[in-house]
Design a protein that fits this description.
By secondary structure, this protein is an alpha/beta fold. It has helices at about 25-40, 55-65, 80-90, 125-135, 155-165, 185-190, 225-235, 260-275, 290-300, 310-320, 345-355, 360-365, 385-395, 440-450, and strands at about 15, 40-45, 70-75, 95, 105-110, 115, 150, 175-180, 200-205, 240, 250, 260, 280-285, 300-305, 325, 330-335, 340, 370-375, 375-380, 400-405, 410, 415-420, 430-435. About 35% of the residues lie in helices and about 25% in strands. Helix 1 crosses helix 4 and helix 8 crosses helix 11 (about 345-355). The radius of gyration is 22 Å and the shape is globular. About 55% of the residues are buried.
Length: about 450
């Protein structure tokens, strides 16, 4: 029987439980398929600190090398470090990580040369089809001359490249607590921050893919409690939390209060627009705050609204020639970084903005955080389609409301909006809501959740 990859090949990556849903033999077939679909002579592979990552990534490398492709392994790295290698070396790349998912999961984020994303419509469906076919019939005969597998360290080059994009030379000294969540931030932060006027307080920098302290998903409020407490105890200027593969960053202010990723998007957008003479397109996904397009317009830029997900954002970045893009999930995309997402570069922007003036972070971000948001609230549901239809039925036809289905369902009024969309990786519906005041937001949030949860 051919393997059925439908449960692990998502909209823009591969993700599933190891070894129940996928394993090293399947990774080897995926490596061979990736080599064929990209028609590459060479590619670059990196992996995170999960126990299954080294074996899976090496199997993928073997599959590609058997097809005659020369493989450069950069070993332990963050996802944005893999994108750096793909961009700087101009090679297709594969990153082995399941990001913030629990320890038993693993996955692959793939890109073409220059960190161009590989999603369902840009090669992932073909990779899946080949791997499924070969799992039944056997992989095609290896190339007459197999490719080589070599190692290369890119960490110092990656760090230097990022520091070259943000001027931190004149900032005041800052005390920053960083919670790496036992993920790849513990590997990258010491090198990236080296030589900067920062008093670094590290938390959970030990690489451990079993996540012994908390899940490496800083969007869940439970996972930043330790960081918030430490920031207050240390009297720090700010705190930064990274997710498992360190491509997302989440910020808390000097009081330990979370700073909305939408506010960070608006802050970085204002800095990128200033760098580009007050002109440029900035992408934001449809669950970012109303503040984001407002700030972009105020700074002379053109906001473009898009659906959630890195491959969609990157495609829109390329199509529109955007200079920057932000998502409310704390992914930040930069034209100067091959349109790829890098939480580390966003963190450097925050440090530069804070260190370039005398006030606290809480004061700095007020101009970028104008409304009251619910944050993302996940509900496990048996039937995503049916529950989404129930929400739509509750609001369709009401006067003064606008409905759109760019990504899930968005309902907007003059005073509030909400979006409900299905997860691509888990049996969840995700709710984001925002309003002009706390009372309105709470009422709206509870009303929609009651429908979702039946």
């Amino acid at each position: 029987m051919a393997a059925d990859l439908s449960t692990i090949v998502k909209a823009y990556d591969v993700r599933g439980v190891v070894p129940d849903q996928w394993d090293e033999p399947l990774a080897e077939l995926l490596g061979a398929a990736f080599a064929q679909v990209t028609a590459a002579d060479a590619l670059v592979i990196g992996h995170d600190m999960r126990p299954s990552s080294p074996g899976l990534s090496r199997a993928f490398a073997r599959g590609a090398a058997a097809r005659g492709v020369h493989v450069t392994e950069i070993g332990l790295c963050s996802t944005d470090q893999l994108y750096y290698a793909s961009g700087a070396l101009d090679l297709p790349g594969a990153m082995f990580t399941a990001s913030h998912n629990p320890a038993q999961y693993n996955g692959i984020k793939m890109c073409r040369a220059g960190a161009a994303p590989v999603g369902q419509d840009t090669g992932l469906a073909e990779i899946r089809a080949l791997a499924e076919t070969w799992s039944e019939s056997g992989a095609p005969a290896p190339a007459a001359t197999p490719g080589t597998i070599t190692r290369r360290d890119t960490l110092e080059d990656y760090a230097a490249y990022l520091r070259g994009l943000v001027d931190l030379t004149a900032i005041r000294p800052l005390k920053v607590v960083v919670d790496a969540g036992n993920g790849m931030g513990g590997h990258t932060v010491p090198t990236v921050f080296a030589g900067l006027p920062l008093d670094l307080v590290p938390m959970y920098f030990e690489l451990d893919g079993t996540f012994p302290n908390h899940e490496a998903n800083p969007l869940d409020p439970a996972n930043i409690v330790d960081l918030q407490q430490r920031v207050r105890e240390e009297g720090a200027d700010l705190g930064i939390a990274f997710d498992g593969d360190a491509d997302r960053c989440f910020v808390v202010d000097e009081r330990g209060n979370p700073v909305s990723p939408s506010a960070i998007t608006a802050l970085v957008a204002s800095r990128e627009l200033a760098k580009h003479g007050g002109k440029g397109t900035v992408i934001h996904n449809l669950i970012t705050s109303w503040s984001v397009p407002e700030v972009i317009r105020e700074c002379g830029g053109t906001p473009v609204r898009t659906r959630v997900g890195h491959s969609f954002i990157k495609a829109e970045m390329a199509r529109s020639g955007a200079i920057f893009g932000g998502e409310h999930s704390a992914h930040y995309y930069f034209a100067d970084f091959w349109n790829a997402d890098t939480g580390m570069l966003a963190a450097l922007h925050v440090l530069a903005a804070l260190g370039g003036q005398d006030g606290p972070l809480s004061g700095l971000v007020t101009q970028y955080d104008r409304y009251v948001g619910s944050g993302e609230i996940n509900s496990t549901v048996a039937d995503q389609t049916a529950r989404l239809a129930a929400v739509r039925a509750a609001y369709a036809g009401q006067d003064g409301l606008a409905l759109d289905e760019l990504d899930g369902l968005t309902v907007s009024s003059a005073d509030w909006w909400f979006n409900v969309r299905p997860s691509n990786t888990e049996p969840l519906l995700r709710l984001n809501a925002e309003a002009r005041d706390e009372t309105t937001m709470a009422k709206l949030r509870d009303e929609v959740l009651a429908i979702i949860r039946g």
